[in-house]
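Shipment paperwork, digital attachment
Item: protein structure file
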Amino acid sequence: MINSARTTACASEVISFCVGTQEFCVDIMAVREIRGWTPATPMPHAPAYLLGVIDLRGAVLPIFDLAERLGLGVSQPNKNNVIIVVQVGILVAGLLVDGMRDILTVVPDSVQPVPDIGSDDVHRFVSGLLPIDGRLVSLLELDHVVPGEAAAAVAA
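Attachment content:
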């Protein structure tokens, strides 16, 4: 069971957010900050899901369109969008999302497996499903969502 008020020794926290009509979440320990949309400088020959880069306090930060990366269409960034700055290993990157939802406490046995629907990409990007108040929140696998090679090439 997921309960934002209940904590146990095995529980962890996630941040949930919206991309289109779907809700996703990531481990709160991977999140470095949440900021408003800042227009990104496009990079030549970059993958379609790489919106470009921004200057984040003197560091070049690649910004990924999470909707495009997950195959949910292309975002049209505006002032209502949010960038979630995440760290995956040594790589720091921004994920463009439509809006923040909540901070949730997750008890490990509440995570449901992703059903086998004939697509390896689903299992690569989503590690589990969290049933919350009649809806399902997809737990993203950041190691696969943030493409190390593409982002590292931008940062170099």
